[in-house]
UniProtKB/TrEMBL annotation:
InterPro entries: AlpA, Prophage_regulatory_activator. Coiled coil: none annotated. PANTHER family: DNA-BINDING TRANSCRIPTIONAL ACTIVATOR ALPA (PTHR36154:SF1). Signal peptide: none annotated. Pfam families: Phage_AlpA (PF05930). This is AlpA family transcriptional regulator. It comes from the Bacteria. Gene3D superfamilies: 1.10.238.160. The lineage of its organism: Bacteria, Pseudomonadati, Pseudomonadota, Gammaproteobacteria, Alteromonadales.
Amino acid sequence: MPEVERTTGLKKSTIYLLIKQSQFPSPISLGGRASGWLLSEINQWKAERIAISRGQ
């Protein structure tokens, strides 16, 4: 989660809110209580946000 927060500039609560609203990639279970995200999905999400902000 700290890496996702650094990469996106969002806080944990905002990330989970966006996941709930289907506006952010869902985490992947790594087993037990561990989870993570695919960097490619995070980068795609960022690229989409950039395109939206620039009216593309």
